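Incident log, structure service

09:12 report received: a user says their structure output differs between two submissions of the same chain.
09:20 pulled the input from the user's history:
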Amino acid sequence: MGTSSQIAPSGTTDLRAAVDAGLNAFRFKVELSLAPVIRFWTESFGDDGSAPSAVAAIIRKELERTPELLGVIDDPAVIARHRKMVDVLMAAAFPPAFWHQEYSAALVPFQLHSVYATPPFERLLMGEDGRLKVRMGYAGREVSLFRLRFAYALVLERVYGLSLPLDYALIFTVTDPETGLDRHFQVEFDGRFIDVETPDGAPPLPDLVRQQLLARTLELETLESILPPERFVFRGVTIFRAIDVTDHEVLSSLKRDLIEKESIVSATRFMGLQEKLRTLFRRPELRFGLAALDGDRVLKLNSGARIEKACIFAESVHHKTSDFTGSIYERAVLSEQPVIVDDLNAMPDRTAVENMVLDAGVRSMLVAPLRYQERIIGTLDLVSPRPGDFNLSHLPKLDDVLPLFSMAVQRSMEELNTRVQAFIKEKCTAIHPTVEWRFRDAVLEMIEGQRTCGPTGSSEMATIVFADVQPLYALSDIRGSSTQRAIAIQADLLAQLRLGRTVVETARQARPQPALDELLYRIEARATEVAQGLKSGDEIGVIGFLRTEVEPLFGHLQQFAPAVAAAVETYQHALDPRLSTVYDQRRRFEESVTGIAETISSYLDLEEQAAQGLAPHYFEKQKTDGVDYQMYVGASLLEDGKLDPLALKNLRLWQLMVTCGVALRADQLRARLPIPLETTHLILVQHAPLSIRFRFDEKRFDVDGAYDIRYEIVKKRIDKALVQGTGERATQPGKIAIIYSQPSEAAEYRGYIQYLQGLGYLTGEIEDLHLEELQGVHGLRALRVTVDLRNPHIVRPVPLAELAAALN
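09:34 re-ran on a clean worker, output below:
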């Protein structure tokens, strides 16, 4: 009668109540009668000597002694009195071979009252009063509409010869008295043993109505007015058949439930899923759990067993994967196949995990891996307090549900990751991929604390410190950038003062006035001061003077003569439209600085990707008048805590090679810059490891502890270091200054320098320099080497295999 179906949600309408509520709407007269069944036997078979004809002859003879079975039956007790005869008659609808397997019954027409039923029907679907004891997800009106359509389908077929099949499916839900679990049945109502009588004659059915019926365009209310129910009588029995569709309905319901975002993380919804799995597997005491694999963490998303405390999700706990070593969970993940334990109590070599589950009252369990896009993302476990509750026969059903839960777990993990990433970005801005795992752990720990501690839980992330990391620092700076900037500012101020003086001088020549003489004197005085040297505050003072003392007069002065108007126009045309000042030399300087910084920065970004392949590390850079970058390498930065012993040497050699590439690129760019600025380059060597702490207020890493602060002091002051006794800067264009404090550091870098000299990166002699003391910093020295700026191959990345070979 159709294929669409759904499981009744909790609180659905009881079917009997729904039908009873619609009785008044069903105005057809119905009568219980076995006459249509008897007619099947007496009229379908002749006297041909066959077995059916012999049975028919016996039935005809027996009916002569039981005439009360031939007419309308007002009292169902009549059927009980002649049960053996009725058994023979009902064999037409209830084959004896399926008597103990089918859920079938004969009902009073259009009522849910059984007068004859199979044993499975009586046990599961029939109440003591003979009425159906089922639930369904339909309101009373929908049940009444179905019954009305069924009735008119019989009327149209039997009286008017119109066959209009019903595309209606009804799903009944009943509680199994043995297990207490829901069972779902798709039901069929067979009307072949129902006669349709028209005591007062059949109302006419116009051709237009026939066409509308065939086209399915006629409303039921209109049909009732054309064919009034009172004109028809239904006499006979309805054959009711129920087909168990529990598995199909549960799977359909699980699909709908698992689409919901909170399906596996809400405790209430999770328990609803558990009830459906109990129904699917026919295990009333079944409990299930879900876990997700997240790096080296195992997130217990939810557990019907209530073994764990709550965190992360509504019912979630996280562990390390190492906690599950040797357990049934690890076996399922590694084998990528379900694992069944018949009895935990008898299981040899139990791990702490199995002991914990056993202590919770679990005896049998089934653990299956969850797969998403060819990778294992978690596990689903089914447990029971009874031994032997799970076996190989459950695996086909398990195969049906695993993809559904895999999708739900994947979606929940994606939502968790989005939540964690949003928090990290809010609190920490962008985090380098190498250390992102630690920030993720911190966020998960914070969320867990909020879950377990409630309102008193902290809303702040835990302190993030990485101990025993080796720093690598390098700086490529523009030589004399402060002086060059001051020269550019000076040139622009003088140019604007000259333009202003031209306007006033031209106006004075057109109309001599003492006030203009005085203003011209002040302009020239300002220009003289700026030309002698730029002092702090000169830029603001000069611009303020021109805007308040000179420019407000332009509107009046340009009326003196066309030459004055032209001078004003030249002045205004020379101003930058955004800043309203002359910005020519400063723009050229800023363009040059930006060009150098962008060139160095993009080159570093490209090479840093290769460096991550040498050894995972933390990297950050800053662009000012040049580019400086900081790297940290250490086992504590890595999630697995495993660091290649050559990692530090790899990165130090990489850093020296990349600095050569930076020097060459900056030199090649110099001729194309508006102002040919020069760059200098240094590397700071720190032999002793230090600790770094993430500063949430500044959203960056900084050294942790008083001892390590010395390193930061050196970084801030080292570019100003002078060679002892010479007054010369340690950093010089075309050269690299390697700043160190320990002899072992110099020895290590001499080896790198000799290797790069062999490759043509460096040339000339190695200068070993003593540096003058900086404030708070003593005992620094430097190795200074010359970059071969004629070698174009410097900027090309060296293959990692070649680099590694150089260190072995």
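09:41 both user submissions now match this output. Likely a transient worker issue. Closing.
09:42 reviewer note: The CA atoms of residues 556 and 565 lie 10 Å apart. The longest strand covers residues 465-478.
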